[in-house]
Amino acid sequence: MKKKLAVLTLLLTLNACAVSGCGSGSKEDTAGTQTTAATVSQETTAADTQETTVSATEDTDSTTESTSEETNGETPAENGLELYKDVLDKYRTAIAEKWDYGTCMENDICALITNTDTGAASFDNVGAALIDMDHDGYNELIIGDPTDTTGKSVYEIWTFDGNTTKKLISAQERRLLNVGYMVSYMQDVNVYFISAMGSNSAAEFEYDYYTVSNGALQNIQSVISEAVSDTEVTWYQADSDSGSRNELDADTANGIVDSYSQTWILPDYVSLASE
């Protein structure tokens, strides 16, 4: 129940920001801008709304500090990086042997690690972090670029169900990943989410938002921007199950975009060079 309330809290806060216009306040819409929209789940009850409140993190420093407190404490061996040793060893091999884009693809690791000046990954631009994103007692593994201080370069996210490890999502050339969270003080839990943003076509850009639940991604919102002309963009909320779309106004879309992007975090990465 706590996790359900936490997710509803996240949705309520984002919707409130859209209505009040919090965020950057930009009203311009272009097909190439990285903005998104979302609407609150209609299944949220009045009781949930009255009992649950949330406060978004206000800056990157405080967010990173909070994340560090969760991941820097004493971690049992069965819940540390050792749990994902096979995954991390494959990345270490890719770096040591200077795999190119195609070799990474063939070996099922994120090929975006090769997006460097040399065309090969290095231990400088690939790190690992642990966060219990669904509060089940097992840390998820986040592999990303620690040199990107905006926290926007997440390569892959893995989970553990108590028996096996499983890849949840991987970044691609046309789908970039971010991790963020908001803090639910009433429920005393961080509501983590994953942003996946990418183009479906030259005219269409999709923004998907997920939480982690029971070892799988749970889609909470999907928004699509469609360029109908050189100067006009139409926004939609998409239903991932039915594939249906409902049009959104631009102001709501831009307000929700800011609510998500302002809570992205830079995970507390450690170098893969250290075993």
**Share of β-strand residues:** 25-35%
Tell me the Rg in angstroms: 19 Å
Tell me the count of domains. 1
The termini sit apart by: 38 Å
Secondary-structure element sequence?
HHEHHHEEEEEEEEEEHE
Q: Note the total helix count.
A: 6
Global shape: globular
List the helices and strands and how they pair.
Layout lengths: L1 H19 L25 H6 L3 E2 L3 H12 L13 H12 L4 H6 L20 E5 L8 E5 L9 E7 L4 E6 L5 E9 L4 E11 L4 E10 L2 E12 L5 E6 L6 E4 L1 H12 L8 E2 L4
Antiparallel strand pairs: 1-6, 2-3, 2-12, 3-4, 4-5, 6-7, 7-8, 8-9, 9-10, 10-11
Short description:
With 275 residues, the chain is α+β, with helices and mostly antiparallel strands.
What distinguishing features does this structure have?
275 residues; alpha+beta; 7-stranded antiparallel beta sheet; 5-stranded antiparallel beta sheet; 6 helices; 29% strand; globular
Give an overview in words.
By secondary structure, this protein is α+β, with helices and mostly antiparallel strands. The chain has one domain. The protein contains six helices and twelve strands. It has helices at 2-20, 46-51, 60-71, 85-96, 101-106, 250-261; strands at residues 55-56, 127-131, 140-144, 154-160, 165-170, 176-184, 189-199, 204-213, 216-227, 233-238, 245-248, 270-271. The strands form two sheets. Strands 1-6-7-8-9-10-11 form a seven-stranded antiparallel sheet. A five-stranded antiparallel sheet has the order 5-4-3-2-12. A hairpin with a 4-residue loop joins strand 4 and strand 5 (165-170). The longest helix has 19 residues, at 2-20. The protein is globular, with a radius of gyration of 19 Å. It starts with a helix and ends with a strand. Mean pLDDT is 76; it is low at 21-77.
